Write the C-alpha cells for this entry.
Amino acid sequence: MRLSTPRPTARSGLRRPLHLSASVALLVSGCGDEPPTPSDIELRPDLTVVTGDLTPSSQAEVDALVGVTEVTGSLFIYPEAYDITNLDGLSSLSAVGGDLRILNLHYYCGFTLTNLDGLSSLTSVAGDLVVRRNCALTNLDGLSSLTSVGGLLSLHSNEALPNLDGLSSLTSVGDLMVQFNLSLTDLEGLSSL
C-alpha cells in the first residue's frame, strides 16, 4: 500500500516512526526524499482515519482497510494493475477528502472489478470521482449513499454499465462527464441533481 504524505528527510540507516494520525505509524528508513513504500507502512487494526493519499496495491491491502472511515487525501484504486476484485474492505469508508479514482491505467479495459459494493457507506468525495475503464462493472449500486462530489464526476468507458441507478442519492456535483459507456441506456439515476 502506498501512503503519500510529507515527511522529514531520513538519514541513511536511521529508522524512526513518523506519526501520520493517531492510528497510523510510518517507519522511515534512509532513502533521502523518496516517498514511503509499502514495506514502510505499518497499519494497525484500530485505524479509522488515513491522513494523506492512499493507493492499495493488492486485494489484501484493500481488505486490511476494514474500519477506515475517512481518507483525508485522495484514494487511488487500480483494479487490473493490482488484481483487485472487490472493494469490500472499504465498507466503513464514508468520506474522501481528495479524489477517488477507480480506473485501469492501461488503454484497455479491465475485467477484475464487477461492482463497487464495498463503497456502500461513502457519502462524500471532496475532489473528483473518476470511474474509468472498468469493463465488467455492471452497476454503481455501491455508491447508493453518495450525496456529494465536490469536483468532477467522471464515468468513462465502463462498457457493461447499463444505468446510473446507484447515484440516485447524489444531490451535488461540481461537474459531470459521462462518456463511452457503451451499454448505458438510462440516466435516471442522476435525477436528483
Remarks:
- The longest strand covers residues 148-156.
- The longest helix spans residues 59-63.
- The radius of gyration is 17 Å.
- The CA atoms of residues 100 and 129 lie 5 Å apart.
